[in-house]
Amino acid sequence: MVPGRVLIERHKPLRSRLKVTMKYFTLLAFLATVSALTPLKSVITSEKERYIIKLKADTDVSQFTQSFGKSVGSDDLDFKLLHRYENVFKGFAAKLSEGALNQLGLPVDDSYTPIGDGTGITVYVVDTGVLTSHNDFGGRASSFYDKDGGAGTDCNGHGTHCAGIIGGSTWGVAKNVNIASLRVFGCDGRGSESDIIAALDQLILSGSTPAVVSLSFSGSSSTLLDDSVNTLITDGFVVVTAAGNDVSDACGYSPGGNTNGITVGATDEQDARAYFSNFGSCLDLFAPGVDVESAWIGGSGDASYSLSGTSAAVPHVSGAAAILLGLDSSLTPDEVKTALSDRAVMGAVQSPGAGSPNRLVYVGSGDGPNTPPPAQACSYTITTNNSLVTSPNYPANYDNDLMCDYTVVADDGFYVQLAFEDFDVEDGDDCVYDVLNIYNGATATTSNKLASLCGSQHPGLFNSTESAMHLTFHTDSDITATGFSALVTFLEEIIPTFPPATGTCSCQGTCDLEENLINTPNYPAEYGNDEDCSYQFSVPAGYFVNVTFLDFELEASATCSFDKLVIFDGTDNTAPEIAELCGITFPNPVFTTGSDVYMEFTTDGSVTRTGFLAAITATDTVATLPPPTSPGPITPTIPSPDYCDNVYTDPANDEVTSPNWPSNYPSNADCGNTIQAPQGSTITLTFLAFDLEGGSNCPYDTVTIYEGDSVQDPILAGPFCDDLVIPSPVTSTVT
Q: Which Cys pairs are S-S linked (predicted)?
């Protein structure tokens, strides 16, 4: 253990792939079959939805529903009362026609009253093209760019669907906005990263602002694409991007991981995060993305389909951004982003995912609800070897809505090792609730992620191949746990990280790297007497074994003659001995010179301890670190009288300790300490810590207190030797 603490601190849905030269991007809408032109379902006009309305506690429910039914009936809206609630709360359930975008309160109606319609603003839709002749666009849609030099005709449907949500007269958010199509994906939904960047390049050259750029696609992290988006924003374009549909941290994707744009996740009909939607701190907003009806290709210009995906959520926000720009064309991209965030409905999204902001897009009339305090910040840089990294409040439970970042930076020529001592984080499929991500290097990208961790399985240890390691800890607004504690160590060599352990090897013979944690029997409870355990590991040929201790506490002995762990450089105990370990001091990592290690753990019939927990990994170079030096075999020394025999004359301030405290005392010590007080006073000796070798009738190490200044005087208390049991205070009757 390190003293003190350093403050740092499913299913995957069907989707069409966009094949690119170096990257793969995804059109983020889902269909029910492999056909890219088959709708998820046929559209049913005026589909009914169920609502539960909670009223004030003193409301007469019967009178209210009668009055409400008459009012909606007079407006020619459908209303069917399903239940009245009088006991759980005052309220009712009813079937009503679905609201368009959002409602802030009663009466519930079918009207969406935006604060504007986007007049004078252009939204550039980078997609599969747009059917500009669709009746829903009313002549407001045009082709701006076609990768093939054509007319931008949409033969896939995805782009038209997105454009209809942005600005269609039937389903659109901003019903008078201009739509400009940039066709970069073909009829089969395929395209290249180079085509996308070429379209954005043309947009920067000849596009005009104020405007919104709507990007309903996602792929692996791309610096080139992110740079292109940044240039658009610098030139005054508001850029809206998709979080992605992989149930993962959106920060690892492009363009959604670019925090300069506006990244959008998807919700379903119950305002829960859609089962496919990415999540995380790179998101800015959520918007509807399940079974969204909009314009489609084919027919006589009035076709419509329903699709699901974060690509259906993006155009909701693109339309909302256009409305804000239409009201004030001087707004910068950052100001639009802030305004959308400020107007969003807070806390409306169920299970938004670890690190996600709980904001649902809203551009209706009124100012919207107040913004609650931001998620707790906890970002630190660690530059000190042997630092302890913990979750906030550890060992108490961490808080909800955390977005923590830890960056560990080692000295030049050193690498980072992270060894977990404790781990308990809310579990969930794909760690969608609370998650600790570990990255190889100083930044967080998909390509350098070592692991995403949750649950209570001990993760073992992780090693960087760079001089830095980055951790992000994100929590949602629900369950919390004790979190984690991990030791940071700087190493002089690169040690590859193997996958986290799926099991623990405990007192058995041959183990494998899927069980790369070993521990003593009963750990973390005490091991038993007369244990005789062996552990044998083999790593791939060409690698060497590294044994790193995460916890260590055995019975102490200067020669490790009682309880001990012996490590051999081979497959059995006939191989050369590398280390013989006992006591309570953490050993240094132990390295073999070959691809095998054999360990024996034996105990005697007396003292027991909590034992050890160690991780087995592999390294491709022979270690240059020194072998363990403590508390292995040492030459016994007898303390000199001036070191061990002392006289204390200020009992109010003096502290009496064993030799070497808090390290192990030596063998063969024979110490006599005399405590003197002023005449007429008595002396009280209060033990603050006590850890001696135990045994029946104290045959080994003891502390005895005498009523006087020599061993010839009467015994006042003791002898004491009980392992880890602190004796009660002892008070003299003389000075």
A: 644-671
CATH architecture of the domain with residue range 378-491: Sandwich (2.60)
For the chain, first and last CA: distance in Å?
40
In the chain, which segments carry CATH 3.30.70.80? 49-97
List phi, psi (to 5°) of 271.
60, 25
DSSP 294-306: EE-SSTTTT-EEE
Give the residue range(s) of CATH 3.40.50.200 domains in the chain: 122-360
Beta strands, E only, 75-210: 79-85, 91-97, 122-127, 141-146, 178-183
Q: Considering the chain, tell me which residue range(s) the CATH 2.60.120.290 domain(s) occupy.
A: 378-491, 504-619, 639-735
The DSSP string of 203-253 is HHHH--SSEEEEE-EEEE--HHHHHHHHHHHHTT-EEEEE--SSSSBGGGE
- Sequence-distant (6+) residues with CB within 8 A of 580 are 560, 564, 565, 566, 567, 632, 633
Q: What does the pLDDT look like over 149-182, one tens digit per residue?
A: 999 999 999 999 999 999 999 999 999 999 999 9
CB atoms under 10 Å from CB of 6, counted, come to 16
Query: What is the distance between the alpha carbons of residues 386 and 368, in angstroms, rounded to a whole number?
Result: 48
Report residue 707's pLDDT band, with 50, 70 and 90 as the boundaries: confident
Name the fold adopted by 49-97.
Answer: Alpha-Beta Plaits (3.30.70)
Q: Which residues are catalytic?
A: 127, 158, 311
Helices and strands in the chain: count of H runs, count of E runs = 7, 42
CATH number 3.40.30.20 given to 504-619: no
> Would you say domain 122-360 falls under CATH 3.40.50.200?
yes
Q: Who contacts 479 (Cβ-Cβ below 8 Å, separation ≥6)?
A: 426, 433, 434
Tokens of 535: 């552990």
The answer to whether residues 520 and 601 touch, using CB atoms and an 8 Å cutoff, is yes
Structure tokens at 618: 């592999």
For 202, the 3-state DSSP assignment is: helix
Rounded distance between C-alpha atoms, residue 527 and residue 555, angstroms: 11
Question: What is the Cα–Cα distance from 656 to 454, expressed in whole angstroms?
Answer: 45
CA within 13 Å, CB half, 545? 27
Exposed / middle / buried, residue 196 (Cβ in 10 Å: 0-12, 13-18, 19+): buried
Q: What is the pLDDT of residues 176-224, one digit of tens each?
A: 999 999 999 988 777 778 889 889 999 999 999 999 999 999 988 888 8
Contact 146, 152 (CB under 8 A): yes
3-state SS, one letter per residue, for 322-357: HHHHHHCCCCCHHHHHHHHHHHCEECCCECCCCCCC
Residue 648, H or E segment? strand 647-648
| Helices (H), ranges, 75-210 | 158-167, 193-206
What is each CA distance from 323 to 111, 210, 260, 317, 335, in whole angstroms? 17, 11, 20, 10, 13
Q: Report the interhelical angle of 158-167 vs 310-327 (nearest 10°).
A: 40
Question: Could you tell me which residues are beta bridge partners of residue 517?
Answer: 504, 615
Query: Domain 639-735: which topology?
Result: Jelly Rolls (2.60.120)
Taking the C-alpha atoms of residue 624 and residue 622, their distance in angstroms, rounded to an integer, is 7
Tell me the residue ranges of DSSP E strands in 33-74.
48-54
